[in-house]
Design a protein that fits this description.
By secondary structure, this protein is α+β, with helices and mostly antiparallel strands. The chain has one domain. The strands form two sheets. The chain has a three-stranded mixed beta sheet with strand order 1-2-3. α3 links the parallel β1 and β2. The radius of gyration is 19 Å and the shape is elongated. The mean pLDDT is about 90.
């Protein structure tokens, strides 16, 4: 009887913990994205006032103390650290490129009119964020 009760409890509780883990990864991903994007916006404000290119280069973005005060955390879905440069087409489509090499993708073009910078997750794992069409967003869509 005890084994049956434990089995029923396990069947109910384990899926709830799996969902909590997915929500934690999604929340962590959103936090990293928000922090990096906010830091890029702050950099842009300072750069525009100084008459410099508005968006940081990849080297500036990844150098501690220039844009970010700490290293950019690993992608919580893949556990992979680092930021890699991607092309305009890859950034526009939010393409996942060499997922084992970098956790994040960055595209910047300060010569475009207007200048553009796109920072996003380098994985297409499903998150717990619901899109307007009812489907779940993937990490690279956030």
């Amino acid at each position: 009887m005890v084994v049956i009760v434990i089995g029923i409890l396990a069947a109910v509780v384990v899926p709830q913990f799996a969902g909590a883990s997915d929500e934690a990864r999604t929340s962590s991903l959103q936090s990293v994205l928000g922090g990096v994007r906010s830091s890029i916006a702050s950099y842009r404000t300072r750069a525009v006032i100084a008459g410099e290119d508005p968006f940081p280069t990849l080297a500036e973005l990844t150098t501690v103390g220039v844009v970010m005060q700490n290293e950019i955390a690993a992608n919580p879905f893949t556990g992979v650290s680092g930021v890699q440069s991607v092309s305009a087409a890859q950034a526009q489509s939010r393409a996942v490129v060499n997922e084992q090499a970098a956790g994040w993708n960055y595209y910047v073009d300060n010569s475009a009119s207007p200048p553009v910078a796109i920072f996003y997750a380098n994985c297409d794992d499903e998150t717990t964020v619901e899109l307007t069409n009812g489907e779940m967003a993937t990490a690279n869509e956030l």
